[in-house]
Design a protein that fits this description.
CATH topology of the largest domain in chain B: OB fold (Dihydrolipoamide Acetyltransferase, E2P)
Mean pLDDT of chain A: 90
Helix content of chain B: 10-25%
CATH class of the largest domain in chain A: Alpha Beta
Strand content of chain A: 5-15%
CATH class of the largest domain in chain B: Mainly Beta
Low-confidence stretches of chain B: 12-56
CATH superfamily of the largest domain in chain A: Periplasmic binding protein-like II
Number of domains of chain A: 2
Radius of gyration of chain A: 28 Å
Shape of chain A: globular
CATH topology of the largest domain in chain A: D-Maltodextrin-Binding Protein, domain 2
Largest sheet of chain B: 6 strands, mixed
Shape of chain B: globular
Structural class of chain B: alpha+beta
CATH superfamily of the largest domain in chain B: Nucleic acid-binding proteins
Largest sheet of chain A: 5 strands, mixed
Number of domains of chain B: 2
Oligomer: heterodimer
Number of helices of chain A: 21
Chain lengths: 534, 263
């Protein structure tokens, strides 16, 4: 009886544990009680900038300031200008166990990184640590508490049952509008842009004069409406219409009638050439600044490139056209209930065999949330700081109040873009994270790209085309191979369910009973085998 | 005692299974105070690398075009050309970007569908037939969504064409994508895309008082090449001779393949 009992017990234990955890490696991170300052640590930080040298300088300054506080930690910076490249390099380095210590990333990407056991450190324990956690007593810097991080932004980093990242900067998309041309066409900008309005103005702008130039700009080139990130375009359209995209567990739902209708509508505007995308035409900012675009949708983090007075310009001076620019929320289907994407870089900490090294990495990652770094970096683009501590600081408030004082630090369009997100944080959303969510996002954008290209290539875009496109996307992005995680919903844990409490209590009782039984048996055996005392 | 233990074990197993099951009643609970918010992710500003893509081939079989016919074709029209590989950028994810030139003109093949095995065969001089679509991106006329096949037989590597005298003129664009050289250019500024070695290098040079933007494209020449290393040592005022492909981005933006300090 005892052997079967032991096997059963072991089985029960294994089953109960696997119900609560994913695969774990031998290097599962254990938070040290004390950070060992007698040792030196060299950690690597893979950072992304927007081809913006000021951002690079801020990273370098942050590292220098952090190293001054923690002289036993050296941070080596590796710079990227492309999230995709970071993602590819991390994937490559997971295989060789040479991941960076801290990395700018997106939660979608982390979901892929997590397919390796204990690759990315869950941060819950670190957040909560009194000494080294958020706002901890022994960090040597003034970092925000967990409560001071904007909840929407922090929640974006919570998936698979844990916090796997901390937000670093946040942006959304904005529609940069050539108001001069809108009004020249006889329209008045509404308070909130709608899709109907944008399409209507875009079509009206296609009228040409007798010499074959577009009447509104007098040029041979005009793309009234250009969208930079077509994945965002589709995702936001669907969310505004409350149409399915995916479940939290990874069930792909994007291939539906609403998507089909949206694609057909987009095809209509591609056919008239009133709409195009970055991938096929070029940067929206360049067309906008040349007076060749009326509605340019791009990230608020691209605001410094937008407008004839922009501090960053990529076109020749002689091509620049003067116009009044308006920074507006992206078009809406229900302007009374606006919805827009939340985006921007987050930070994750990679696991290492040495838990002290991980702790050093965490301290650096957390340092990037201090007001000094947050405010400085947010000012480089239309970003906003991720913590109320920085957002509400006198320094940041002063910055916001000085819009338009110059065309550099206080560039009006950039500050308007930041304000747009600050005022609409409650209207932002993000999509579910799962292993494969990055592919689904790519497919969402690619469908628009394909429809746009096919229309321009005089191919028939109809219902049959869309059905084929759905099938192609499913195959190309392997969306039919995404494992729908039945535990995903449960992993988004709130309070521990009653059944789990009962389970744990029962297991504890079983162990106590086993221990008592074993003890009793041992004593009984000992009594039987002990030689009689003299 | 044993019966009691068995009962406890059975109960714990049952509950363990229950803990595994997907209970709809659990719903999705966010760790924050808002219980209705689902676990989510921030969106990407930029597209990430997609899985292997397959180019859609033009539906009709086209006859091979001359360069003149290619240039006359409308944007987004299907095109078919036979040309010779001059250089390639890094292969990645079954795609490769190729600089090609024939005797009558040059082509830029953007993200040509290509296996890694075939990419290794795309050496300078190799003749290929390309089917794709003519597009334009920021002034650069290129072929995208293309497939190719190797053509046995001759090969071609052009002599470098000196276009120094065409800088700043409307004639220069006629040589877009060709292998060209510029003599006696004065370095004005060298700047790394990232502020430090490891990424593209932006090279601003001047001639006769006019400034021009050139680029060392790391996907073409890499960071360990002589050209990358040499450019990194240049200073303002140096006079250089430059060879490269006449790429276009809002105007001429040659991709440098070699650079020498003029004697």
């Amino acid at each position: 009886m005892k052997k079967p009992l032991s096997v059963l017990l072991a089985l029960a234990l294994v089953l109960s544990l696997t119900a609560c955890h994913g695969a774990k490696d031998v290097h599962e991170f254990q938070l040290p009680e004390q950070f060992d300052t007698s040792r030196d640590y060299t950690i690597t930080f893979w950072a992304k900038n927007d081809t913006n040298m000021t951002q690079v300088e801020i990273y370098k300054q942050a590292i220098a300031d952090f190293e001054a506080l923690w002289p036993n930690i050296t941070v080596e910076l590796r710079l990227y200008t492309d999230y995709g490249k970071i993602y590819n390099d991390v994937i490559t380095n997971i295989a060789t166990d040479t991941t960076p210590n801290v990395c700018i990333t997106y939660p979608d990407h982390i979901a892929t990184y997590l397919t390796g056991a204990d690759t990315v450190v869950p941060l819950d324990q670190l957040f909560a640590d009194e000494r080294y956690g958020l706002g901890g007593s022994d960090t040597r810097f003034d970092s925000p508490t967990k409560e001071e991080i904007i909840p929407q932004f922090l929640n974006e980093c919570y998936f698979d049952g844990c916090y796997y990242a901390i937000p670093f900067m946040r942006s959304t998309e904005a529609c940069y509008v050539n108001r001069t041309y809108v009004e020249k066409l006889g329209f008045t900008l509404p308070q909130t842009l709608t899709w109907d309005f944008v399409w209507q103005v875009s079509e009206a702008a296609m009228a040409k004069d007798a010499s074959g130039n577009y009447a509104v700009n007098g040029q041979k080139v005009l793309i009234p409406f250009i969208y930079k990130s077509t994945d965002n375009m589709m995702i936001q359209m669907l969310r505004q219409l409350d149409a399915p995209y995916s479940t939290a567990a990874g069930e792909v739902q994007i291939f539906n009638d609403t998507t089909k209708d949206l694609l057909l509508q987009i095809a209509d505007h591609s056919a008239t050439r009133s709409f195009n995308t970055f991938k096929l035409a070029g940067y929206p900012a360049n067309f906008l600044n040349a007076g060749q675009c009326i509605f340019a949708i791009d990230s608020t983090a691209g605001a410094t490139w937008m407008g004839p007075d922009a501090p960053l310009i990529d076109i020749a001076d002689e091509k620049l056209v003067d116009f009044d620019i308006e920074v507006m929320t992206i078009p809406q289907y229900h302007p009374e209930d606006p919805k827009m994407i939340s985006q921007g870089p987050s930070l994750c900490v990679f696991n290492k065999a040495d838990s002290q090294e991980v702790l050093a990495s965490w301290l650096f990652a957390q340092y990037l949330l201090t007001n000094e770094v947050q405010i400085a970096y947010a000012q480089t683009e239309g970003y906003v700081p991720v913590a109320s501590k920085a957002q509400e600081s006198p320094e940041y408030q002063d910055y916001l109040s000085r819009a338009g004082e110059d065309n550099e630090l206080y560039y009006d369009v950039k500050l308007q873009a930041s304000r747009l997100l600050l005022e609409n944080t409650d209207h932002t959303f993000v999509t579910a994270v799962f292993n494969g969510s990055a592919s689904l996002r790519n497919a969402a954008g690619q469908m628009i790209e394909e429809v746009n290209k096919s229309t321009r290539r005089k191919q028939t875009v109809d219902e049959a085309y869309i059905q084929d496109l759905f099938a192609d996307m499913t195959s190309l992005y392997r969306l039919d191979q995404i494992a729908v995680d039945g535990t995903a919903d449960k992993l988004l844990l709130g309070p521990m369910p009653a059944e789990a409490k009962i389970l744990l209590g029962t297991l504890a009782a079983a162990w106590l009973a086993i221990a008592a039984y074993a003890l009793t048996e041992t004593i009984r055996k000992k009594r039987k085998t002990s030689p009689p005392s003299c | 005692m044993k019966k009691f233990l068995a009962l406890l074990l059975a109960l714990s197993m049952l509950l363990a299974f229950a803990a595994c099951s997907d209970s709809a009643s659990n719903g999705t609970t966010d760790p924050s105070t808002d219980p209705t918010t689902e676990s989510t992710t921030a969106a990407t500003d930029e597209a990430t690398t997609a899985p292997t893509t397959e180019a859609t081939e033009p539906e009709d079989q086209l006859s091979v075009m001359t360069f003149e016919e290619y240039m006359a074709a409308e944007l987004q029209a299907p095109v078919c050309v036979e040309t010779y590989v001059q250089a390639t950028q890094s292969w990645w994810d079954n795609k490769i970007t190729v600089y090609c030139q024939s005797e009558d003109g040059a082509y830029f093949l953007y993200e040509l569908a290509c296996s890694e095995e075939d990419a290794a065969k795309l050496v300078p001089g190799t003749k290929i037939r390309v089917n794709g679509y003519k597009t334009e991106f920021e002034g650069e006329v290129e072929i995208m969504d293309a497939t190719f096949e190797f053509i046995e037989g001759d090969s071609y590597i052009p002599q470098v064409l000196d276009v120094t005298a065409l800088l700043g003129t409307d004639e220069l664009i006629a040589h877009q994508n060709e292998f060209v050289c510029f003599k006696g250019m004065t370095v004005e500024e060298i700047s790394y895309k990232n502020g430090e070695p490891g990424d593209d290098i932006y090279v601003t040079v001047s001639k006769d008082g006019q400034s021009y933007s050139f680029c060392v494209e790391i996907y073409l020449t890499g960071t360990e090449t002589q050209v990358y290393q040499t450019v990194g040592t240049l200073s303002a005022g140096d006079v250089v001779d430059i060879e490269g492909f006449l790429y276009w981005y809002q105007g001429a933006n040659p991709h440098i393949t070699s650079i020498t300090v003029a004697g």
